[in-house]
Amino acid sequence: MIAVLKNGVTKAQRDNLVKWLESQNVRVHISEGEVQTVLGLIGDTSKIDIDLLSGLEIISNVTRISEPFKSANRRFHPDDTVIEVGEGENKVKIGGGNFCIMAGPCSVESEEQILAIAQSVKASGANMLRGGAFKPRTSPYDFQGLRAEGLQLLMKAREVTGLPFVTEIMSASHLDLFADVDIIQVGARNMQNFELLKELGRSNKPILLKRGMSATLKELLMSAEYIMSEGNENVILCERGIRSYDSYTRNVLDLAAVPVLNGLTHLPIIVDPSHATGVSRLVRPMACAATAAGADGLIIEVHNDPVHALCDGAQSLTPEQFSDVARRVNEIRGIMNW
Ligand code: PEP
Ligand code: MN
Asked: Shortest CA distance to 267 belongs to which of 215, 214, 209?
């Protein structure tokens, strides 16, 4: 249920109302927008007398909402959420008209590799570095990532270039190691690892939540809800393609997800054209299309030597190809005027 307050309601009046609502066993999420204050009532609202609430002098209108996602719902929170990471000149904002390009290798492989790639993507206009330290691989015999050492190398790359970074977590038991990570990624395979999501909800780190391979958009939003309902509202959603029956691309990039999610939620939405297509040649057109569709950012795999990459070489761009993509994406942003 959402209750919109009339303009000019004082803080004391609002707090009084919130206290009364909370005494009826609902949690109240307050969203103070530029024009309106909206109260989101979360929990069992069946006992709330909607007529009584609507009739209060300070209430403009009350609506029951049927969507099961509350904290992520745009109706509760009409203004876009803007996530901020990094400091000073390396501060990055994502959402609310701020576009972010995250770029880097699938996996951190060595100090030399991550430093070279970080420097080149920065020079081409990336504002965040990506790189996996803990890798979710289909085969246990494949490279599993440099793990804790990989995180140290990402921190080193940040020290050298200033770029904040995003990296994937696979287990809540590793959370201590992630204390100095800028954005924690939950990969497609863990989108419904509910215990992990709840644990991340109790941290204050921004979370990049990737869509599961066969997840509906509602399921994606419910996973965001797991994180947010524990108190962490810093969630970025990522469309990275879903499984289908065609084999020319690794996944099917669901670009309509961008405007659909934009209507449903205030959370930023970014697109991963690398995992969505699995083919480096397809990354440029899909990065451009995602930008035109209104995404708040992109996450793109870049490798200085794709042929010898330990993971996902076929979909990785060279630094030169990435530079071309970043330039075109910026041109498209200028045209679209999002
Ligand atoms: C990744 O970003 O490296 C990754 C494994 O992505 P996804 O979870 O989308 O497959
Ligand atoms: Mn990858």
From this structure: 209
